[in-house]
Specification:
Elements lengths: L2 E2 L2 E2 L6 H4 L8 H11 L12 H14 L3 H17 L3 H8 L13 H4 L11
Antiparallel strand pairs: 1-2
């Protein structure tokens, strides 16, 4: 498995798919990076040479915000929203959906397992 900026990417998948295992890189950005470096998008990741991996690392660390730096930036943005007491920050703090989804029937992912209330009957 080749290590790209500290992350093991799967070596049996095509290169354009393997790069998407890095946080912050999707298919579109993966294809853009591959064309900039002049690599073949259909080759397997285990066929990358050490020189190719070094060029990938240099490009990702130099020009793109990925992995730890991107995670840190997202967390700082959420902390800022919470600290200024914005509506979105309050929703983050309480653990409810942030982007205007309904919460009466859905949003079990954000709210967690149902809590039964004593005395309530249908």
């Amino acid at each position: 498995m080749p290590r790209i900026i500290g992350i093991d990417v799967p070596d049996n998948k095509r290169l354009e798919v393997s790069l998407t295992y890095l946080y912050g890189i999707g298919r579109h950005l993966s294809n853009e990076i591959i064309t900039r470096l002049g690599l073949n998008r259909n080759m397997r990741a285990n066929k990358l040479t050490q020189d190719d991996i070094a060029r990938l690392n240099a490009l990702l660390q130099g020009e793109y915000l990925v992995e730890g730096d991107l995670r840190r930036q997202v967390q700082n943005n959420i902390k800022r929203l919470v600290s200024i007491h914005s509506y979105r920050g309050m929703r983050h703090r309480v653990g409810l959906p942030v982007r205007g989804q309904r919460t009466k029937t859905n949003s079990r992912t954000r709210k967690g397992k149902r809590k039964t209330v004593a005395g309530k009957k249908k």
